[in-house]
Each structure stands twice: as C-alpha cells, then as structure tokens.
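Single Protein Entry

Contents — chain, fold
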Amino acid sequence: MTKVALVTGAGSGIGRATALRLARDGLTVVPLGHSQDSADEVADEIRSVGGTALPLAADVADPEAVRGVVARVDDELGRLDVVVANAGVNGVWAPVEELTPDEWSTTIATNLTGTFLTVHHTVPLLLRQGGAIVVVSSINGTRTFSNSGASAYATSKAGQVAFARMVAVELAPRGVRVNVVCPGAIDTEIDDNTEVRHTDHLGLKVEYPHGEIPLTGTEPGAAAQVADAIAFLASDAASHVTGTEIFVDGGQSLVV
C-alpha cells in the first residue's frame, strides 16, 4: 500500500519543497497549509507530475484544528507513515526587555506547541504500522546564538530538539523513528513573517574569514536541499536512525 506523508507548513519554502520531494518518491502527500489556497497550490503541483495529494489547512497551534486534520487523513486515506513537523514562524526579534509576553507566546505556540500538537495527534496513526517523524528546527538555538533578539525563536527551536529526543526514546520500541533537521540560511519566504526591532546594537559583531557559509560563501542553501535530508530521514534508508539532528547549513553553524 502507498505510504502517506503529512507535511505541515507546506504552502511555501521548506514545506513546499518537502511535499514535492516526497510525492516524487511515490508517497501520497497531505500538504497542510495555513490557508487552503496555499495547500491547494502545492497539491496542484504534485498532481501535475502524477502524484497524489490531499490538501488541507489548519493553524498548527490550534489543538482542535490539528485533531480535525488527522481525523480527515484517517477517514480519507486510512493510514499515516511519515510526519514532517515543519510549520513555523520567525516571529518578533527584539531586545528581551522589549519583547512582549504576547509576542513570545505567539512564536512558542506556533513553533513548539505546534510541533507537540502535530506529533500528539498523529502518533496513534503512526503506531499502527510504524513510521517516521521529522521535525524542522534550526541552527539557531541549537548550535548558534548570534542572532541577538531572536530569544523566542531560538528557544522554540531548542525546545523542538529536546522534544524530539524525548519522544524518540519513547516511540522507538513502538516502531516510530523521530529525527530533526536544522537548516541554516535557506532561501525561503520565512522573512516575510519576521518583525525586527532595535537589534542593531545587540550582541557581538564577528568577522568571518571566508564568507558566512563555508561551502557557498554568502549564498544561502535551497529549500530542496533541506527536503533531500528530510526525505532521507523519512525513508527506509534511515531505518536505524532516530533521536538525532542533521545540520543542513553548509557549515555555517561551525563559524557563526
């Protein structure tokens, strides 16, 4: 039977590239967008190359919305094998004394609580036959701490890694693998939902000897390169890999 993959935040960037990559690998893909229009666009692209898609929309920070998505996957497709918890925002980057509690909570709700809700509601389906979860974190909060002002974002990303390691141990004896990808600078649309306030004077300025990214200088990576790593972790080629992180950053986090 054809495997089924749910990809959150599939309307753009890494999520879109991952949905398309998994479809090319032969999986039926559920692209979950924040809006139905964005999910439909990805589904149309999947279908145009002969793939199968069930486009859905939900706010991953809304428990009932996520529950409804998983119920539809169960009702209409009858199984779930791969979950990619990718939905996220940069949110507000500001000095810690200026960042408001609401701004903090909004970033944590989408990035960290959204990851928990995605995993929480999908695990019962994954346990039926085993499967794989891939969480999309970041180098920020895990290897690098140079983006001063990004305290909420970095905390949410570090929390994703800790959460993934915890549930990897919990779910391994039950046939579900859990891994993380940590992208560096990637050419996506995430900056469109970023608000930056008064961060120019924060932190320490660092001079890099050969460009910001060792492999490519100033050129960011591509969303498709992150999708390749996700596809590996979701595949049988990674059947003995769980509870680990893959850094997709061209070596950026080693020098930043």
User: Anything to note?
Assistant: The helical segments are 13-24, 36-48, 63-77, 101-126, 151-171, 223-234.
